[in-house]
């Protein structure tokens, strides 16, 4: 028996192990996003309607189940290479922009560098075991298909219901006591600032012209531009720095020119974002922010 003949069964077993592991990983990731959709809203699903988010999570779970059951191995194996290559590119982008988490596992924060390593290893393993995908007819009928369909209904329907109940509301309801709130400042232009009456330490914001910077202490871009806004406060300009929870110093007193979103709910907004307000009405929203040094270049 040749060495190639000896290696073939090992590759078949290795291919099955790889597909099972990745199938479990996808199902777990889908569950994490489904049970804590607000944790993925900002990083992955920003601006997506609920139906699109639901479809994305259900599709991820369905593909994971197909991998676990070994259906259409050749086709699914090749599809997995493409999918995990896409995941690796998303993780690489998160690493390059300095994000703390890509939102791939919902509220469970995972370092994008670790996610990139896992995705890269998955692609390498799939390529190495690619020949193990058997040429099974695509339109296969059998017990595994029935089991897969039953599993998707039994798991997918409750997960969809959970997503519906825990999905973050849009900013139109921020004055309520809902737990998850997704802020979309671009939709506020020409409207009264929805944050009025909600912010802690923002007296006087309803009158005069203000420049509001929403920031988060774990955001590298926020730390890059925030000193310039701090200097503008010192110079007497009407600038308000609004921090999103969790706060950098939870017990610290708020200084003049600083405010917070309340910590009694979870807020999701891409930071940093500059909002110009005139007499309580939003005039403009800007995300293309430069530090003073960058602006001088």
TrEMBL record:
Keywords: Membrane, Transmembrane, Transmembrane helix. It is a multi-pass membrane protein. Signal peptide: none annotated. Residues 14-128 form the Methylamine utilisation protein MauE domain. This is Methylamine utilisation protein MauE domain-containing protein. It comes from Botrimarina hoheduenensis. The chain crosses the membrane at residues 12-32, 52-72, 79-96, 116-133, 145-165. Its main location: membrane. One of its GO terms (biological process) is methylamine metabolic process. It is found in: Membrane. It comes from the Bacteria.
């Amino acid at each position: 028996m040749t060495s190639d003949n000896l290696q073939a069964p090992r590759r078949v077993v290795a291919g099955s192990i790889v597909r099972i592991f990745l199938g479990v990983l996808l199902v777990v990731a889908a569950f994490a996003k489904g049970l804590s959709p607000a944790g993925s809203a900002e990083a992955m699903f920003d601006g997506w309607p609920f139906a699109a988010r639901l479809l994305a999570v259900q599709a991820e779970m369905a593909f994971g189940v197909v991998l676990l059951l070994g259906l259409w191995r050749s086709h699914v194996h090749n599809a997995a290479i493409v999918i995990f290559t896409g995941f690796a590119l998303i993780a690489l982008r998160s690493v390059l922009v300095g994000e703390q988490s890509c939102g791939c596992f919902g509220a469970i924060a995972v370092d994008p560098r670790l996610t990139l390593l896992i995705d890269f290893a998955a692609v390498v393993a799939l390529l190495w075991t690619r020949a193990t995908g058997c040429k099974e007819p695509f339109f296969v009928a059998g017990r595994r298909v029935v089991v897969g369909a039953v599993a998707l209904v039994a798991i997918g329907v409750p997960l969809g219901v959970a997503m519906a109940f825990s999905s973050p509301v849009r900013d139109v309801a921020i004055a309520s006591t809902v737990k998850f709130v997704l802020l979309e400042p671009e939709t506020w232009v020409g409207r009264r600032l929805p944050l009025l009456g909600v912010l802690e330490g923002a007296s006087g914001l309803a009158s005069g012209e203000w420049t509001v910077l929403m920031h988060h202490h774990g955001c590298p871009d926020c730390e890059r531009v925030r000193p310039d806004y701090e200097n503008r406060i010192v110079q007497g300009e009407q600038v308000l720095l609004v921090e999103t929870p969790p706060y950098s110093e939870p017990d610290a007193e708020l200084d003049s020119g600083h405010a917070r979103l309340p910590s009694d709910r979870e807020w999701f907004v891409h930071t940093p974002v500059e909002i110009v307000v005139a007499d309580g009405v939003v005039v403009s929203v800007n995300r293309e922010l430069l530090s003073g040094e960058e602006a001088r270049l």
